[in-house]
Amino acid sequence: MPASSPKKILVVEDEKDIQQLIKLYLEKEGFRVLTAATGPECLVLVAQDKPDLIVLDLMLPDMDGLEVCKRIRAAPETAIVPIIMLTAKAEESDTVIGLELGADDYVTKPFSPKTLTARIKALFRRLDRIQATGTTHYRYGPLTMDLERHEVRLGQEEVMLTAKEFGLLEHLIRHPGRVLTRDVLLNAVWGYDYYGTTRTVDVHIRRLKQKLPILEDAIISVKSLGYKLKEPTDGP
Protein backbone atom coordinates (compact mmCIF):
# COMPACT_ATOMS: atom_id res chain seq x y z
CA MET A 1 0.00 0.00 0.00
CA PRO A 2 1.59 3.33 -1.03
CA ALA A 3 2.42 5.84 1.70
CA SER A 4 0.07 8.79 1.96
CA SER A 5 1.37 12.12 0.69
CA PRO A 6 2.43 14.65 3.35
CA LYS A 7 -0.10 17.18 4.54
CA LYS A 8 0.24 20.57 2.85
CA ILE A 9 0.34 23.61 5.15
CA LEU A 10 0.25 27.23 4.05
CA VAL A 11 2.07 29.61 6.44
CA VAL A 12 0.99 33.24 6.04
CA GLU A 13 3.39 35.49 7.95
CA ASP A 14 5.01 38.75 6.86
CA GLU A 15 7.90 38.59 9.35
CA LYS A 16 10.46 36.62 7.34
CA ASP A 17 12.35 35.20 10.33
CA ILE A 18 9.16 33.84 11.93
CA GLN A 19 7.92 32.54 8.58
CA GLN A 20 11.15 30.63 7.94
CA LEU A 21 11.33 29.29 11.49
CA ILE A 22 7.83 27.84 11.21
CA LYS A 23 8.58 26.47 7.74
CA LEU A 24 11.78 24.72 8.82
CA TYR A 25 10.17 23.22 11.92
CA LEU A 26 7.10 21.93 10.09
CA GLU A 27 9.19 20.48 7.28
CA LYS A 28 11.27 18.67 9.90
CA GLU A 29 8.00 17.17 11.17
CA GLY A 30 7.22 15.83 7.69
CA PHE A 31 4.78 18.46 6.42
CA ARG A 32 4.94 20.11 3.01
CA VAL A 33 5.02 23.88 3.57
CA LEU A 34 3.97 26.78 1.34
CA THR A 35 4.55 30.38 2.42
CA ALA A 36 2.95 33.78 1.80
CA ALA A 37 3.70 37.22 3.22
CA THR A 38 0.46 39.07 2.36
CA GLY A 39 -3.27 38.46 2.34
CA PRO A 40 -3.69 38.62 -1.46
CA GLU A 41 -0.77 36.22 -1.94
CA CYS A 42 -2.40 33.84 0.54
CA LEU A 43 -5.73 33.88 -1.30
CA VAL A 44 -4.00 33.07 -4.61
CA LEU A 45 -2.14 30.11 -3.08
CA VAL A 46 -5.27 28.82 -1.34
CA ALA A 47 -7.12 28.76 -4.67
CA GLN A 48 -4.24 27.29 -6.64
CA ASP A 49 -2.63 24.79 -4.24
CA LYS A 50 -5.54 23.84 -1.95
CA PRO A 51 -3.62 23.44 1.34
CA ASP A 52 -4.80 21.01 4.01
CA LEU A 53 -4.36 23.68 6.71
CA ILE A 54 -3.52 27.40 6.94
CA VAL A 55 -1.42 29.11 9.61
CA LEU A 56 -2.55 32.74 9.33
CA ASP A 57 -0.99 35.76 11.02
CA LEU A 58 -3.55 38.30 12.22
CA MET A 59 -1.44 41.37 11.42
CA LEU A 60 -0.58 41.43 7.72
CA PRO A 61 0.19 44.29 5.32
CA ASP A 62 -2.50 45.40 2.83
CA MET A 63 -5.15 42.94 4.06
CA ASP A 64 -5.31 41.76 7.69
CA GLY A 65 -5.83 38.18 8.79
CA LEU A 66 -9.47 38.75 9.74
CA GLU A 67 -10.36 39.79 6.18
CA VAL A 68 -8.35 36.90 4.73
CA CYS A 69 -10.14 34.45 7.03
CA LYS A 70 -13.52 35.91 6.08
CA ARG A 71 -12.81 35.52 2.35
CA ILE A 72 -11.56 31.95 2.73
CA ARG A 73 -14.70 30.98 4.65
CA ALA A 74 -16.97 32.73 2.13
CA ALA A 75 -15.75 30.59 -0.80
CA PRO A 76 -17.47 27.15 -0.87
CA GLU A 77 -14.34 25.39 -2.17
CA THR A 78 -12.24 26.61 0.79
CA ALA A 79 -14.89 27.02 3.49
CA ILE A 80 -13.78 23.97 5.52
CA VAL A 81 -10.00 24.37 5.27
CA PRO A 82 -8.72 24.46 8.88
CA ILE A 83 -7.23 27.82 9.94
CA ILE A 84 -4.95 28.44 12.90
CA MET A 85 -4.54 32.15 13.59
CA LEU A 86 -1.36 33.70 15.01
CA THR A 87 -2.11 36.62 17.34
CA ALA A 88 -0.41 38.85 19.93
CA LYS A 89 -1.70 38.88 23.51
CA ALA A 90 -2.85 42.48 23.09
CA GLU A 91 -5.19 41.39 20.28
CA GLU A 92 -7.58 39.28 22.40
CA SER A 93 -10.71 40.98 21.07
CA ASP A 94 -9.51 40.41 17.50
CA THR A 95 -8.84 36.78 18.39
CA VAL A 96 -12.50 36.33 19.36
CA ILE A 97 -13.56 38.02 16.13
CA GLY A 98 -11.26 35.63 14.25
CA LEU A 99 -12.92 32.63 15.88
CA GLU A 100 -16.33 34.07 15.06
CA LEU A 101 -15.28 34.51 11.41
CA GLY A 102 -14.34 30.84 11.26
CA ALA A 103 -10.78 30.36 12.49
CA ASP A 104 -10.50 26.92 14.11
CA ASP A 105 -7.80 27.72 16.63
CA TYR A 106 -5.26 30.37 17.59
CA VAL A 107 -1.72 30.54 18.97
CA THR A 108 -0.53 33.61 20.86
CA LYS A 109 2.83 35.22 20.09
CA PRO A 110 5.49 34.69 21.24
CA PHE A 111 5.13 30.92 20.82
CA SER A 112 7.39 27.94 20.36
CA PRO A 113 7.29 26.04 17.05
CA LYS A 114 6.66 22.93 19.17
CA THR A 115 3.41 24.42 20.51
CA LEU A 116 2.22 25.33 17.02
CA THR A 117 3.09 21.87 15.71
CA ALA A 118 1.17 20.25 18.58
CA ARG A 119 -1.93 22.27 17.68
CA ILE A 120 -1.60 21.32 14.01
CA LYS A 121 -1.21 17.63 14.81
CA ALA A 122 -4.18 17.72 17.20
CA LEU A 123 -6.35 19.21 14.48
CA PHE A 124 -5.25 16.63 11.91
CA ARG A 125 -5.85 13.80 14.42
CA ARG A 126 -9.36 15.08 14.88
CA LEU A 127 -10.00 15.06 11.14
CA ASP A 128 -8.49 11.57 10.85
CA ARG A 129 -10.78 10.26 13.60
CA ILE A 130 -13.78 11.59 11.72
CA GLN A 131 -12.68 9.72 8.60
CA ALA A 132 -11.83 6.51 10.50
CA THR A 133 -14.95 6.23 12.67
CA GLY A 134 -17.26 3.32 11.98
CA THR A 135 -20.39 5.51 12.12
CA THR A 136 -20.52 7.97 9.26
CA HIS A 137 -24.06 9.38 9.46
CA TYR A 138 -25.98 11.09 12.26
CA ARG A 139 -29.42 12.62 12.36
CA TYR A 140 -30.98 15.11 14.75
CA GLY A 141 -34.49 16.00 13.64
CA PRO A 142 -34.14 17.64 10.19
CA LEU A 143 -30.37 18.00 10.70
CA THR A 144 -28.10 15.34 9.17
CA MET A 145 -24.32 14.83 9.36
CA ASP A 146 -22.25 12.88 6.86
CA LEU A 147 -18.77 12.40 8.35
CA GLU A 148 -17.19 10.92 5.23
CA ARG A 149 -18.31 13.79 3.02
CA HIS A 150 -17.85 16.35 5.83
CA GLU A 151 -21.38 17.58 5.11
CA VAL A 152 -24.10 18.98 7.35
CA ARG A 153 -27.57 19.52 5.98
CA LEU A 154 -30.65 21.17 7.41
CA GLY A 155 -33.37 19.52 5.40
CA GLN A 156 -32.07 19.65 1.81
CA GLU A 157 -29.85 22.69 2.34
CA GLU A 158 -26.13 22.18 2.98
CA VAL A 159 -24.68 24.29 5.81
CA MET A 160 -20.96 25.11 5.65
CA LEU A 161 -19.12 24.51 8.94
CA THR A 162 -15.46 24.90 9.80
CA ALA A 163 -13.51 21.84 10.95
CA LYS A 164 -13.87 22.79 14.63
CA GLU A 165 -17.59 23.62 14.30
CA PHE A 166 -18.11 20.28 12.59
CA GLY A 167 -16.16 18.43 15.30
CA LEU A 168 -18.05 20.20 18.08
CA LEU A 169 -21.42 19.39 16.53
CA GLU A 170 -20.37 15.77 16.03
CA HIS A 171 -19.38 15.40 19.68
CA LEU A 172 -22.65 16.94 20.88
CA ILE A 173 -24.77 14.82 18.56
CA ARG A 174 -22.94 11.65 19.63
CA HIS A 175 -23.88 12.33 23.28
CA PRO A 176 -27.45 13.72 23.38
CA GLY A 177 -28.80 14.43 26.86
CA ARG A 178 -25.34 14.34 28.44
CA VAL A 179 -23.73 17.38 30.06
CA LEU A 180 -20.34 17.99 28.43
CA THR A 181 -18.01 20.31 30.29
CA ARG A 182 -16.01 22.91 28.39
CA ASP A 183 -12.82 21.03 29.28
CA VAL A 184 -14.26 17.78 27.88
CA LEU A 185 -15.22 19.56 24.67
CA LEU A 186 -11.80 21.22 24.40
CA ASN A 187 -10.06 17.86 24.81
CA ALA A 188 -12.37 16.07 22.40
CA VAL A 189 -12.42 18.67 19.63
CA TRP A 190 -9.22 20.69 20.03
CA GLY A 191 -7.02 17.94 21.50
CA TYR A 192 -5.50 17.24 24.90
CA ASP A 193 -2.51 19.46 24.14
CA TYR A 194 -4.65 22.55 23.47
CA TYR A 195 -3.68 25.45 25.72
CA GLY A 196 -6.41 27.95 24.90
CA THR A 197 -9.24 29.11 27.15
CA THR A 198 -12.73 27.67 27.49
CA ARG A 199 -14.03 30.88 25.90
CA THR A 200 -13.11 29.25 22.60
CA VAL A 201 -15.89 26.69 23.16
CA ASP A 202 -18.44 29.43 23.88
CA VAL A 203 -17.58 31.26 20.65
CA HIS A 204 -17.95 28.09 18.58
CA ILE A 205 -21.25 27.15 20.26
CA ARG A 206 -22.57 30.61 19.40
CA ARG A 207 -21.48 30.16 15.78
CA LEU A 208 -23.19 26.76 15.57
CA LYS A 209 -26.46 28.28 16.78
CA GLN A 210 -26.17 31.09 14.24
CA LYS A 211 -25.57 28.71 11.34
CA LEU A 212 -28.08 26.09 12.55
CA PRO A 213 -31.06 27.87 14.15
CA ILE A 214 -32.56 24.49 15.07
CA LEU A 215 -29.85 24.29 17.75
CA GLU A 216 -30.71 27.63 19.37
CA ASP A 217 -32.94 25.96 21.95
CA ALA A 218 -31.55 22.43 21.53
CA ILE A 219 -28.09 23.23 22.92
CA ILE A 220 -28.55 24.11 26.59
CA SER A 221 -25.96 26.01 28.61
CA VAL A 222 -25.48 24.32 31.98
CA LYS A 223 -24.34 26.99 34.46
CA SER A 224 -20.69 26.69 35.56
CA LEU A 225 -20.32 23.39 33.71
CA GLY A 226 -20.74 23.36 29.95
CA TYR A 227 -23.35 22.37 27.40
CA LYS A 228 -25.94 19.69 26.71
CA LEU A 229 -27.75 18.77 23.51
CA LYS A 230 -31.38 17.91 24.22
CA GLU A 231 -32.51 14.38 23.42
CA PRO A 232 -34.18 14.32 19.98
CA THR A 233 -37.95 14.14 20.22
CA ASP A 234 -38.80 12.96 16.72
CA GLY A 235 -36.85 9.70 16.57
CA PRO A 236 -33.86 8.76 14.39
Could you please describe the fold and organization of this structure?
The chain is an alpha/beta fold and 236 residues long. The protein folds into two domains: 8-128, Response regulator (Rossmann fold, 3-Layer(aba) Sandwich); 138-229, Orthogonal Bundle (Arc Repressor Mutant, subunit A). The protein is 42% helix and 21% strand. It has helices spanning 16-28, 39-49, 65-74, 92-101, 113-132, 163-174, 182-190, 199-211, and strands at residues 8-12, 32-36, 53-57, 83-88, 105-109, 137-140, 143-146, 151-154, 157-158, 180-181, 219-222, 226-229. Strands 2-1-3-4-5 form a five-stranded parallel sheet, sandwiched between helices. Strands 6-7-8-9 form a four-stranded antiparallel sheet, covered by helices on one side. It has a three-stranded antiparallel sheet with strand order 10-12-11. Helix 6 (163-174) packs across helix 7 and helix 6 crosses helix 8 (199-211). The N and C termini lie far apart (38 Å).
